[in-house]
Amino acid sequence: MMKRTAPLLAGLLFVSTAFAQDAAAVAPVPPVEGPASLLSLVKTGGWVMIPLGLASVITLTLILVYLVSLRRNTIVTGQFMETAEALLKKRDHRGLLAVSTRHNEAIARIAGRMLDFATKTPGATLQGVREVAETEGSRIAGNLNQRIVYLADVAMLAPMLGLLGTVTGIIKSFGTLGAKAADASRTLLLAKGVGEALVTTASGLIVGIVAMAFYALFRGRVQSLIAELEGATAHLMSLFSASFEKTPREAARRSVIDDDDF
Q1: C-alpha to C-alpha distance for 151 and 59, rounded to whole angstroms
Q2: For the segment 85-131, what is each residue's pLDDT rounded down to a tens digit?
Q3: pTM (2 decimals)?
Q4: What is each CA distance from 57 to 64, 187, 210, 211, in whole angstroms?
Q5: What pLDDT is recorded for position 186?
């Protein structure tokens, strides 16, 4: 009896399996919704996404500007240093002053201020010329540091804006829980408030992280440029000191010679 029923059960199992596979192939598969688009996510974030979008545009603009402006050629160039060294060795201060006015490098502005004070101020001392150079160098270094602080400000404000969106989204969610509405409508409004909170939080963190990362990058670059500017300024001051000390000696020597001749 068992030997007869075993083949029958095996056949029924095979037929039922085949039928199930055919039914599964024929039955329609429900479509799987893909991830939300970027525009829909921005709309989910609510009004807080407007200042966050502005902050992202400002961050991108500052990054592009700093990539172009914070370069070595805007601080020190080999061509100007070679020209300045040659003119200072010749004690041609007025010639170097004219060359400095035609260059836009930071070291050229320092040399221009230094030589303008030395050539136009009667009785200028070497210490006074050095103070003028140091003051101009400090001003340029302060401007460089101040420029990149804007990225740090954006990095601080963006997460706070995201936190504000989080608070407003949670407030909407709790307001929905206390509202007298149908269960389906309440669930939809609750999900909308939670979605707003999450989207604004993520957006604020993304903008803040990007701004802070590039601020750290540009801060290191600015410190390197300032160190190079200080080295170039010290080199010019040493050359100017040598020529500045020789000039009064020669003037005194000439006056002595003229007195002896007289």
Answers
A1: 7
A2: 999 888 888 888 899 989 888 999 999 999 899 888 888 888 888 99
A3: 0.70
A4: 11, 35, 12, 11
A5: 59
